[in-house]
Prior knowledge:
The protein is α+β, with helices and mostly antiparallel strands. It has helices at residues 8-11, 14-17, 26-29, 36-41, 46-63, 67-73, 76-88, 112-126, 128-147, 150-165, 188-193, 289-325, 337-361, 368-393, 403-414, 421-431, 433-437, and strands at 172-175, 199-203, 206-217, 224-231, 240-245, 251-256, 267-278, 282-283, 327-328, 331-332. The protein folds into three domains: 37-170, Acyl-CoA dehydrogenase/oxidase, N-terminal domain (Butyryl-Coa Dehydrogenase, subunit A, domain 1); 173-287, Butyryl-CoA Dehydrogenase, subunit A, domain 2 (Beta Barrel); 291-437, Butyryl-CoA Dehydrogenase, subunit A, domain 3 (Up-down Bundle). A hairpin with a 2-residue loop joins strand 9 and strand 10. The radius of gyration is 24 Å and the shape is globular.
Amino acid sequence: MEIKTFNLEEKLSPKYFLEQIKPYLKFLLKYDQDKLWEMDTQLLPKRLQKLRRNYRAFAEKHLKPYALEIDVNKNKELLEKVKIEAAKAGYFSDLLPSPIGSVDWLTYRYPFHWIAAIKYEELCAACGGLGLLIGAHSLGVAPILVSGDLNIIFNHLYPILKKNKKGIPTLMAFAITEPSGGSDVEDTEGGARYKPLTTAKRVSGGWLLNGRKVFISDGDIAHAVTVFAAIENKGLDSWTCFLVYDGTPGFSRGRNELKMGQRASSATELIFEDCFVPDSQVVGGLEKGWMLNRLTLNYSRIPVGSIALGIARGAMEHAIDFAKNHTFAGKKLIEYQEIQMQIADMLILTSASRMMIWQYAKTWQAHQSWSSMIKVFCSDTAMKVCEIAMDILSNHSIYHKNYVEKHFRDARLTQIYEGTNQINRLAIIEDQIDELFN
Length: 438
């Protein structure tokens, strides 16, 4: 019988000493050494574990192989292919349970923003831009859901989700940002001072919209848009949400911005010139837009934190692969302690982001302070992780059509949209104002 021998380092390793624990204490002291991703997954309820694995498998098969080509060349055929596959998978109809949406009722024992957070980490680890393309649709849907407007849900949203369930990509977009107002309209103090440029004028049977929206994710491909406009001659407190369909007279698209990152999802200018919207397409009632906007952002900033986390994890995974396969001075990079410490930092930062998201997303109510903390911490952390990954790749990191370089560019946008991180810091203070100032 062959007796296996161990050197001193092996005997001092966790793998060796965990086997020496007395059997009756193993349940308390021994743990299985597994990949960190799998260990984290096992912290989730069984149903969410399955979802996480499904999201990862989808991203590896349908997003990652096309990420660089779409980022560099905006290949429309590949984009359409991704959209169709996402629709077939139910990713454009999973905000509501069956029969309206595509998710079974048992899954909605868990908050949908927790499910969304798990989803977008996995998608964006493969490609931040394609993850945003899929996620921007949910953002367009969100004001309708938080309004509780059954007329809009059954008469307008249901037909859109029905098409998506059939594998026909039918996307929505969310339009608040204007040429002269970005994060202004996501902050109470800034909103009180802001003069809206997109307005709605009362006419027989409905409203005429005039104005422009800019940087609208998926604005060029959306079938319908939830548009926020102020009542004519009134301020932002009169903001009202309107559902505007593609092809409506007076509604057109302007330019698509040439973006630095997340290029698979367009940032589009939307133009409204006497665009008629009937009363039946007012979402949630007149002058309820500010409330719908803020409630939507409270929920959407959690998945945005996950988008940032996914981008960071993607950069980390590629940097680790590089370190395992690239040699320097006759040794693989992974064998150098300096590189090991950098990898440890990336693991710490991404794990901290994930645990923060999962902890706060477990609650059904999306608190403004929690959501903003997630958004700020995870997006700032994503930039740090991507910088470390760039350092590991050294001169290789600057090449275009390089995953780490792409993730670095993608991460920057997460600090800007859904309110800049500066605005989100103010949102944290605003939500805690009674404790801080009384």
